[in-house]
Amino acid sequence: MDINWLAVGAAALSSFLLGGVWYSALFAKPWQTAAGLSDAQIKAGNMPLIFGGSFVLALIASASFAVFLGPEVDAATGAMYGFTAGLCWVTASFGINYLFERKSLTLFLINGGYHTLQFTLIGLILGAM
């Protein structure tokens, strides 16, 4: 399979940057409250591990989505497939877990919204490049 690794890297970077905006500037306090994390827990986290691991996982997600999309997809189709994957695969799967774990609707909407937009961007970037 012919994979555009530059596109994969750009897609992973977009996920990483989106997460920074999503979970800090847009939804920091609602997410923290819904996730049940205190300020002390947030500050005590191993940030290099968290950020480094998040980027590696975004690379894995982007590379596997590139394989799924194949080499002949355009930006619009990539974005549509990404939106569908984010909403219908990732968010729906979270929903199943969250129902059994009795997690809040707020946490579901914040996390599901992020992953829906994340995969939309991944598909858009992979298709555009």
Q: Into which percentage range does the β-strand content fall?
A: under 5%
Question: Quick check: average pLDDT?
Answer: 96
Tally the structural domains: 1
What class do helices, strands and sheet pairing give?
Answer: mainly alpha
The number of distinct β-strands equals 0
Q: Unreliable runs, pLDDT <50, ≥5 residues? A: none
Structure notes:
It is built from 6 helices and no strands. It has 129 residues and is an all-alpha fold. The chain has one domain. α5 runs antiparallel to α6 (105-128). The chain is globular, with a radius of gyration of 15 Å.
Strand and helix layout:
Blueprint: H1 5-26, H2 28-35, H3 39-44, H4 47-69, H5 75-101, H6 105-128
Helix pairs in contact: 1-4, 1-6, 2-6, 4-6, 5-6
For this entry, give a set of tags.
129 residues; 6 helices
Summarize it.
With about 130 residues, the chain is mainly alpha-helical. The protein has 6 helices and no strands.
